Amino acid sequence: MQTTSTSPQTLSFAAHASLLDALPNPLLAIDRTSRIVYANASAEDFFKASAAMLARLKIEDVIPPTSPLHELLSKTRDSLQSFNEYGVYAGTPRTGGERLVDVQSANVHDAPGLVILTIHPRSVAQKLDQQLSQRTGIRAVTGLASTLAHEIKNPLSGIRGAAQLLAPGLASSDRELAELIQSEADRIRDLVDEMEVFSDDRPVRRAPVNIHEVLEHVKQVARLGFAGEVRIIENYDPSLPNVAGERGKLIQLFLNLVKNAAEALRDREGGEILLATAYRPGVRLALPGSNEKVALPLEVMVQDNGPGIPERLRPYLFDPFVSTKLNGKGLGLAVVAKIVRDHGGIVECDVASRNTTFRILLPMDRNHEAQGNPT
Question: Mind listing the pLDDT tens digit for each residue in 4-62?
Fold first, then answer.
């Protein structure tokens, strides 16, 4: 283990280097100027850089400037207290990529301005627990959707038909009421139709899908419609293998995410949506209806620079009927969670200080056929 400096602060760390290197979690010491003055062996492994290299960097060079960790460091220095931050992303592409972590910060009391940052990478078990919670909500709405379809649509059709037959023989004022009944019946029917997607338990018709062609289709639909005033940026890995999935459902999945992002940017100057793909080592999950386990190395990211998601809603984001919009039905992200689940994937949401990021991990096609440049 190399020390990062010859300052008294670093020398004190060096005296305990063997103990600090034995810690299983990455540990950084950061001074008042945001410079990294010490990194243990786990930190070297986490950031894919030696201690000597990290010594030439500031903390914003290894953790994105938009990360809430920077605010956490300032708060720790100012208050002289310890803090925790859960479910944030740390790392950059050159240091091994962003990973979901929990973080603890603490002051070094005999070295004013020096903060110890301990990083706890999220385990696969924690990610799976989050997905299971989403699936529980989806199963609940599946039963509700099936009940609504059978118990509401048939009598609703009779109510609408009766109002339509009565309307011609009514006075003008009464005819308006009959037309209102028809309009409201149509609105309820449309809502039930939207929910029927949850009762579709047919297995995904898997085939090799070029995810960049899917994203290009989504981008064109967005530009011609709901995202005409928003800048859409692409950052694709051109060598990404094909996804094992159903093209139509994947289009619906990313249309919902891009539409949500565009609505978050409505009337917001400088609104941007980033579509990105990358190859990441993935966890292994069993496919629905099968005991076979597959890796999920294909990452697709949809990010916007909108106002973010209220903290109180974040734990329930993928639950049905949860919405940040005034007149929203709260079904869009529940549909996203169902489609990802049906594909045997994982969806995560990260809300930084100025960005909302949805990450989807998907299985790749068994043939592992490499794609050409994205369209």
Answer: 444 555 556 666 677 777 787 888 999 989 899 888 888 888 888 888 888 888 888 88
Would you call 246 helix, strand, or coil by DSSP?
Answer: coil
Tokens of 123: 């385990």
- Return the beta strands (E) in the chain as ranges: 27-30, 36-39, 83-90, 99-107, 115-121, 207-209, 231-235, 243-245, 272-279, 284-286, 293-295, 298-304, 346-351, 356-362
Residue ranges per structural domain of the chain: 8-122, 126-199, 207-362
Per residue in 114-159, pLDDT tens?
A: 898 888 876 544 454 455 455 555 555 555 555 556 567 777 778 8
The architecture in CATH of the region 8-122 reads 2-Layer Sandwich (3.30)
- The pTM score is 0.53
3-class DSSP state for residue 307? coil
Nearby residues of 117 by Cβ (< 8 Å), 6 or more positions away = 27, 28, 29, 30, 59, 69, 73, 103, 104, 105
Distances (CA, A) of 5 to 20, 28, 36, 248, 374: 16, 13, 9, 55, 45
Alpha-carbon separation of residue 167 from 155, 158, 180, 186, 199 (angstroms):
19, 14, 10, 16, 35
Q: Helix (H, G, I), strand (E, B), or coil: what is residue 348?
A: strand
Q: Which amino acid is at 89?
A: Y
The CATH architecture annotation of domain 207-362 reads 2-Layer Sandwich (3.30)
